[in-house]
Amino acid sequence: MPIEVWYLVAVFAVAITGFVVLKRPLYECMLAAFVVLVAITGTWADIGTFIWDALQESTLYVIFAFILSAALLSKTSVIDDCIAIILSIFGRFRGGAGFVAVIGSSYMGSLSGSGPGNVATTGVFTIPAMIRSGFPPHLAANVEAHASTMGNMIPPAGMIGVAFAILDGLYPNTYTFPQYWMLLWGIAIWFILQRILTLYFMCRYYKVEPMQKADIPSFKESVKRGWKAVFLPIIVFVPFLLTTEFDYFFTARLGEAGAKALNSSLLLIIPALIVICGIFLSDKKTRKEMTLKNMYKGINDGMLKVVPTAALVLFAYFVSNVFEALKVEQAIGDYFAVLNLPRVVLCFLIPLICAILGMLLPGSSQVKIFGGIIITIMATAGCNPMLVAGMLPCICGSMHGVTPPYCACVYTGMGIAQAELKPTLLNCGIWVALHYLLSVLILLGWLPVWGLIG
Questions:
Q1: pLDDT tens track for 46-65
Q2: How far is CA 101 from CA 141, 145, 146, 257, 307, in A?
Q3: Span 326-380, pLDDT tens digits
């Protein structure tokens, strides 16, 4: 067994011992794991690079900015107006606000391309609406988090292009991007259905009932009072729609690097934009109360929620950068390539390995470094190469945002919902297990996938 596997074991051992045995916060455990990893690998000379590269990750600042913006928005009337409109339409259905989150966040995620960013942009509306309609906070956080990770597997998310490039490099002139695009939608339909069914049974388990008729806001009154609030989700949505639909326009003028920087910048600019718009779209009383002093207090309160989450994500990136430098994914892939395992075993094993790697390593890194090996190994065992390539965003990208201890999507939702850590992670485990099982079934070919070719 390669020594890189033992590096993974060491990191998990430190993190689990600190969190379960010593009862330390998870971000402290992740920092301790980073120090231990650097020590046992002898990479002290590169520690500055590991830290500096992590500080340049836009996801860290996206989480920070959006949770702070949520804290400020909660003090305006515009969020209450949005929630009232949602509940006036869906409050009569059991878990209605949750289904809004699943469908809306699945689509929004394909535009933003960022799981945590998607949780933040849509979660400020859907999570409070779910809690108001009877969801436990930890369930509301998980519904939004797991719906938001769908964006990584639904076209035209950025990770999809990376996966197809790997497939085309291995099998040139064999598969076309339109075929691959249709396959991805065929896969995504199964995962959307899985989220909807999971939510359906979760609502029954947690006894989330339809709202009492007397508590459901009047649609007419809600729209009359808060019609301006409808513009806030549109303000969030339109920039992502434009940069997605007119990507060629921005790429031609800014270059690929510039277009990518523009998309990252949007996720940092929009939090400030929605706060400013939220204040102006609120009623006169709210606008009067949103003084600099009160806004400072809101930011100060929000800091208490965002710092632990941001610290955990930052330290997880420290660890991830060490693994990338050591080419851990490549070593593990090469190891499994020589084992010559049968197809059925690989269909169970590969998604599990990706889930474990996703606890610490970014999904995009897994796809770039590990994707070619996964496709080659599974195709050699008899799997359809295009199907395997289509599943890469599902087993790498989507799993990365929700598998503890990293699970940035879950922590972002938890921060907005003000949910407790233990019940949130326990409930998260169920969602992850179901995602894993569905991935296995699709890879085994036991479920028909629209767009699949022989």
A1: 999 999 988 887 667 766 77
A2: 10, 9, 10, 32, 25
A3: 877 667 767 776 777 899 999 999 999 888 877 766 676 677 767 888 898 899 8
Mean pLDDT, the chain, rounded, equals 81
- The answer to whether the CB of 409 falls within 8 A of the CB of 401 is yes
Within 10 A of 120 (CB to CB), how many other CB atoms are there? 32
Domain borders along the chain are: 3-444
pLDDT, position 244: 61
Which residues lie closer than 8 Å to 342 by C-beta, 6 or more apart? Answer: 381
Cα separation of 136 and 142, whole Å?
10
Residue 255 gets the label, from left (phi > 0), alpha (psi -120 to 50) or beta, of left
> How far apart, in Å, are the Cα atoms of 17 and each of 36, 310, 312?
13, 21, 16
Give 389 or 296, the one with higher predicted confidence.
389
Q: How far apart are CA 199 and CA 251, in angstroms?
A: 39
Residue 439 confidence (pLDDT): 96
Q: In whole angstroms, what is the distance from residue 278 CA to residue 73 CA? A: 7
pLDDT score at 79: 66
172: left (phi over 0), alpha (psi -120 to 50) or beta: beta
CA distance 132 to 130: 5
Amino acid at 403: T
Extended beta strands in 186-289, E state: none
Q: How far apart are CA 55 and CA 315, in angstroms?
A: 10
Q: What angle do CA 104, 108, 114 make, to 5 degrees?
A: 135
> How distant, in Å, are the alpha carbons of 59, 83, 118 from that of 115?
9, 22, 5
Single-letter amino acid, residue 134: G
Angle at 354 between CA 137 and CA 402, to 5 degrees: 10
The helix/strand/coil state of 113 is coil
Taking a C-beta distance cutoff of 8 angstroms, is the pair 87, 202 a contact?
A: no
**Is residue 199 within 8 Å of residue 142, measured between CB atoms?**
no
d(CA 329, CA 324) in angstroms, rounded, equals 8
DSSP state of 150: G
| Distance separating alpha carbons of residues 450 and 435, to the nearest angstrom | 19
How far is C-alpha 91 from the chain's CA centre? 26
Residue 201 exposure: Cα atoms within 13 Å on the Cβ side: 9
Of 163-177, 375-389, 401-415, give the range with the top mean pLDDT.
375-389
Closest CA to 29 of 38, 16, 40: 16
